[in-house]
Amino acid sequence: MESPATYLHWGFILISWPNLLVILGMLVVFAIALVAPFPNHGEADDVSAK
Amino acid sequence: MKSMGQTQEEYYRGVRMVPYDLLKELVLAMAGVGVLAILVAAFLSSPDVAPVTIANWSQADPVDFVTTATGELAGTTTSAGYGAPYNTTPDAFQSWGPIAPQAWFGVRIPIDSANAYVIDPLKHASFTNSTLAASLTQWQAATPDQQAAWLDAYTTALADATVKDGNVTVASGDYGPLTLMMSNLLGVAQTGGLDGLLAINGRFYQTDYTQPLLFMGDGGYFDGLAANEHLSGDLWGMMNETGTYPGQTWLWLYTMWYQVPPFTSDTGFLGLNAGNADLGIIILMTVLTFLLALVPFIPILRDIPRWLPIHRLIWRAYYAPNGQAPGRPTSVKPLGSSVPPAP
After folding, report:
1. How far is CA B242 from CA B233, B238, B248, B251, in A?
2. Is B4 buried (19+), middle (13-18) or exposed (0-12) by CB count in 10 A?
3. Looking at residue A29, what is its pLDDT?
4. How close is the nearest chain B Cα to the Cα of A45, in Å?
5. Buried b (16+ CB within 10 A) or exposed e, B242-274
6. To the nearest whole angstrom, how far is the Cα of A43 from the nearest Cα of chain B?
7. 3-state secondary structure of B99
């Protein structure tokens, strides 16, 4: 971990692999946030019924 | 808008809401991130690079140190000609039209490179060194032309300097007192004395490293360390971390502009170019920040959520077509326990 990171150089894109992985991780979390159901969506949470 | 005499319950009557436990989400998110941070720290540790000091520099690359110190004495280094806030070098400030904050605020951290990095430290060292004191007297008594001639000759000779036992040796020449002065300065630096002298600021706690950082920044050693760690500008260094660790990736928006025209161009566009890139990018980001804050009032931008209804994907149960999906109550809930969905 103490040695400098390697780089991805693709066309005009020049980015270190750790930074790229973090960015990809953020996109994955965003995608999960879009599609993952809210915990209470499967329940009858209509408060008017409570 | 809530009218006078209207209760909260009346105000929200008819507004569809979805029950949502924000406090529960906050607690779970904090706990999850906390556990993840502890686990990752345990397995991967964190960057812990030893601090770079003038002592390290002068020991590892004595020629670079002496060359830089000679440049400080000659006033030819980057910091010596930087202008505000360090010195009064004319026209050495960035501006865009009438906007020139570097000039507006002037010299707030005055640094005389020759005195700060060479003469003053040598004066301290000369208290117990009469030979050095005589050299300093000779230097200060010389005419500017004589000093310039010594500096030129010594700087030229440093290109072929050799190092033996940590000392810098140059070919014979007329360098006046420079050889002795630089030899003593190198000795002070290698023992760590210069780090202490440049960090003295009269306060109990010392957190101001402006002077040593500027001095090291003028040399090639510090720049080389940064380049080895991929921290230089052409590798988007501001968003990198030392080692293999990821950096502050949120800074990409700021560093990106340094890689694209007009901030890479000498001629530029509308007066923005590589020469005033720092100021230009601050202005650009300020404008973009205002635009972000004003999105609800900007046609087209404010309509994007209607064209790309991502919020309907998140609140898909609420927007279910049959209108009877869970979480589609029409009753009133107390404020604070519910969040209204996006439009």
Report:
1. 14, 11, 11, 16
2. exposed
3. 92
4. 6
5. bbbbbbebeeeebbebbeeebbeeeebeeebbe
6. 7
7. strand
User: Nearest residue on chain B to A44, judged by CA atoms?
Assistant: B326
- Low-confidence spans in chain B with pLDDT less than 50: 1, 324-343
Residues in chain B: 343
Task: For residues A29-40, give the mean pLDDT.
Answer: 82
- Cβ within 8 Å, pair A7-B230: yes
* Strand-strand pairing, B162-164 and B167-169: antiparallel
pLDDT at B304: 92
Distance CA B228, CA B222 (A): 10
pLDDT of res. A34: 87
Backbone angles phi, psi at B99, to 5 degrees: -85, 110
Q: What secondary structure does DSSP assign to B279-312, as a single string?
A: HHHHHHHHHHHHHHHTGGGSTTGGGHHHHS-HHH
Residues ≥6 apart with Cβ < 8 Å to B235: A7, A14, A16
Tell me, what's the pLDDT at A50?
38
* Angle of CA points B59, B64, B66, to nearest 5°: 85
Cβ(A40)–Cβ(B19) under 8 Å? yes
- Name residue, tokens 């993952």: A36
What is the residue-wise DSSP string for B185-249? HHHHHHTTHHHHHHH--SSSS----HHHHHHHHHSSHHHHHHHHTT-SGGGTGGG--STT----G
CA gap B314, A37 in Å, rounded = 8
Tokens 């010596």 sit at which residue?
B80
pLDDT tens column, B212-249: 999 999 999 999 999 998 888 888 888 888 988 988 88
pTM for this prediction? 0.79
Q: Does B201 touch chain A (CB under 8 A)?
A: no
B42 touches chain A (CB under 8 A): no
User: Which string of DSSP letters, residue by residue, matches B67-78?
Assistant: HHHHHHHHT-ST
Bond preceding residue B262 cis, omega within 30 of 0: yes
Given CB atoms, is A14 within the 8 Å cutoff of chain B?
yes
* Interaxial angle between packed helices B210-218 and B221-228, expressed in degrees from 0 to 180 and rounded to the nearest 10: 90
Q: Annotate B51-63 with DSSP letters as a single string.
A: PP-HHHHHHH-HH
Give the number of residues written for chain A. Answer: 50
Q: For the beta carbon of residue B153, count every other beta carbon within 10 angstroms.
A: 17
